[in-house]
């Protein structure tokens, strides 16, 4: 029985490879597709772990093994406009972006679904570790994947609500070892392929990448308690909230953290560990996966992908923004990052962090002089 036509997004990795094989076995009419993001003259060491020419070759070979057609779709323009350019702009504005969220929201589950419809497909499938739950009333929910180490719902909060019923997650109810076992069972060439962890378009470190796009301008590291200048830097774009290492302060024996970033005045504010905790946040560019009146007041949230979910209370929610209060102060709440809402395992939506309470006051210092651009030493982020 043909269950419908599916466009399966294939990255050349084991998860999407197994997804294609499972869908074919389950009776779907499968079309394999890979989204091309890399430019004709890609930078050295970029797009190598995923979304690369080699990965496209492997995805095509897997499609041949599974016995489905395969297409390489050109999304270079969309990737440049929606992912790479905003990535640099956010760091220049003193914020910490998450390009993987933007990629899922604006490319994979927007542009790709439109392409699927053009090809006569009812569904788009991916290798995300997310569970799709179909309710009796016809509504679709996204829940955390069964492998807690691999759950990827954090990256999918921006999925257009009307697209949810058209998305399948074949490996969402499996753990990673089972997926690799199935890949071996199907004889797929990607069965032992290692996972990619880095940002695909960043060659080594984020700091090195940004050096080619944002001018280096000298500024000050300022203690938020005393207003004392405790160090200098070559650009606020090289820092993120909660960062402790690589600050190169005058008094290196004093432990300080980045608390606030002020690009306009070229100031990186630093303080102690307690100063890096916030009780309340506001988010914009929000997306809900249910009606606003149905949002529970008491929820769980994540402010970073690898952080544990924590209890919080929604203070206000509108179509454009929401405010919430944590049950306990949270460390390193960074503007530009995603705050994602949950009710148990169910994904409710999310938004982009705009501001936190308490705020840090702005103080103007003499305009710093420009210095000759040079690549900074790698500075580990929190």
Automatic annotation (TrEMBL):
It catalyses: S-sulfanyl-L-cysteinyl-[protein] + uridine(34) in tRNA + AH2 + ATP = 2-thiouridine(34) in tRNA + L-cysteinyl-[protein] + A + AMP + diphosphate + H(+). CDD domains: MnmA_TRMU-like (cd01998). The keyword Transmembrane helix does not apply. Residues 357-382 are annotated as: Disordered. GO terms for cellular component: cytoplasm. The active site is at 103 (nucleophile), 200 (cysteine persulfide intermediate). Its EC number is 2.8.1.13. GO terms for molecular function: ATP binding; tRNA binding; tRNA-uridine 2-sulfurtransferase activity. Residues 366-382 have a biased composition (Basic residues). Gene3D superfamilies: Adenine nucleotide alpha hydrolases-like domains (2.30.30.280), HUPs (3.40.50.620), Translation factors (2.40.30.10). Disulfide bonds join 103-200. Residues 150-152, 304-305 are annotated as: Interaction with tRNA. Its main location: cytoplasm. Residues 207-271 form the tRNA-specific 2-thiouridylase MnmA-like central domain. One of its GO terms (biological process) is tRNA wobble position uridine thiolation. NCBIfam families: PRK00143.1 (NF001138), trmU (TIGR00420). Catalyzes the 2-thiolation of uridine at the wobble position (U34) of tRNA, leading to the formation of s(2)U34. Belongs to the MnmA/TRMU family. This is tRNA-specific 2-thiouridylase MnmA. It comes from Deinococcus cellulosilyticus (strain DSM 18568 / NBRC 106333 / KACC 11606 / 5516J-15).
């Amino acid at each position: 029985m043909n269950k419908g036509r599916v466009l399966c997004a294939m990255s050349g990795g084991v998860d999407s490879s197994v997804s294609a094989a499972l869908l074919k076995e389950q009776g779907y009419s499968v079309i394999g597709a890979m989204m091309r993001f890399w430019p004709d003259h890609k930078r050295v060491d970029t797009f190598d772990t995923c979304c690369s020419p080699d990965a496209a070759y492997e995805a095509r070979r897997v499609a041949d093994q599974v016995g489905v057609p395969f297409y390489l779709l050109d999304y270079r323009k969309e990737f440049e406009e929606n992912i790479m350019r905003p990535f640099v702009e956010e760091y220049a504005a003193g914020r910490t972006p998450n390009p993987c969220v933007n990629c899922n929201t604006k490319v994979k589950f927007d542009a790709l679904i439109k392409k699927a419809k053009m090809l006569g497909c009812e569904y788009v499938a991916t290798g995300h570790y997310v569970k799709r739950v179909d309710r009796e009333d016809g509504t679709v929910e996204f829940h955390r994947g069964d492998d807690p180490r691999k759950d990827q719902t954090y990256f999918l909060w921006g999925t257009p609500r009307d697209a949810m019923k058209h998305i399948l997650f074949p490996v969402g109810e499996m753990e990673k070892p089972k997926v690799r076992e199935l890949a071996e069972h199907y004889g797929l060439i990607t069965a032992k392929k290692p996972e990619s962890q880095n940002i695909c378009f960043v060659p080594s470190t984020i700091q090195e990448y940004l050096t080619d796009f944002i001018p280096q301008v000298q500024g000050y590291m300022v203690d938020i308690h005393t207003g004392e200048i405790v160090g200098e830097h070559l650009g606020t774009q090289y820092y993120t909230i909660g960062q402790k290492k690589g600050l190169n302060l005058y008094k290196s024996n004093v432990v300080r953290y980045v608390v606030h970033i002020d690009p306009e005045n070229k100031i990186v504010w630093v303080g102690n560990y307690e100063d890096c905790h916030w009780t309340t946040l506001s988010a914009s560019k929000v997306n809900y996966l249910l009606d606003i009146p149905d949002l529970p007041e008491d929820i769980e949230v994540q402010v970073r992908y690898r952080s544990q979910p924590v209890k919080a209370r929604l203070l206000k929610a509108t179509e454009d923004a929401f405010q919430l209060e944590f049950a306990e102060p949270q460390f390193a709440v960074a503007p530009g990052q995603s705050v994602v809402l949950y009710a148990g395992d169910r994904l409710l939506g999310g938004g982009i962090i705009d501001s936190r309470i308490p705020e840090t006051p702005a103080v103007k210092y003499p305009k710093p002089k420009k210095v000759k651009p040079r690549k900074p030493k790698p500075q580990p982020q929190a």
